[in-house]
Write a structure and sequence with these properties.
single chain; alpha/beta; five-stranded parallel β-sheet; 7 helices
Length: 170
């Protein structure tokens, strides 16, 4: 089950007929979809505040899909990535999966395979966002500690007992 944040499926492909077909399929089953024919435009607009996934064409004129994935990571955008290509090569597939891609599909892709990959990507994205929210909450709590509380906390995390902490801090 997804959180109250509405997940988005981004589609990035320089072939407008592919963009339209995939967008219709995904919107038809209830997904919020955004399409981009320019990978650079997508990178500039991509934000990671909402769970989502991106379906990336591997071969585009401006920039290839692996570079888009890399640029998203540099920006700190946490989206699950699904590669879709007409000319998949084993080394590209391996690189994509090692870099964290959810799936690597070849065109033409069956509706069932694409929908399964999107569902898996959105589940993975939801888990990542939940973990990130927990980390952010912990960072906020840590930042709210007084200097003395920081001293005590630093000793607690080293495994010292209360008596040892008291002796250490006087």
């Amino acid at each position: 089950m997804m959180s109250d944040l509405s997940p988005t499926v981004y589609i990035v492909d320089d072939d407008t007929s592919i963009l339209r077909a995939i967008a219709r399929l995904l919107a038809g089953v209830g997904y919020h979809v955004e399409t981009y024919s320019s990978p650079r435009e997508f990178i500039q607009s991509a934000v990671g505040g909402v769970p989502g996934c991106v379906i990336l064409d591997m071969h585009m004129p401006e920039i290839n899909g692996l570079e888009v994935q890399h640029q998203l990571a540099i920006k700190g955008v946490v989206l699950s990535v699904i590669f879709l290509t007409a000319h998949g090569q084993i080394d590209q597939c391996v690189d994509a999966l090692k870099s964290g891609a959810v799936d690597f599909l070849t065109k033409p892709v069956s509706d069932a395979n694409l929908l399964a990959a999107v569902a898996a990507g959105l589940r993975k994205s939801e888990v990542r966002h939940k973990k990130q929210r927990e980390i952010n909450t912990l960072k906020e709590r840590l930042a709210s500690l007084s200097p003395r509380e920081h001293q005590v906390f630093s000793l607690v995390v080293t495994g010292l007992l209360n008596k040892q902490i008291a002796a250490e801090l006087g």
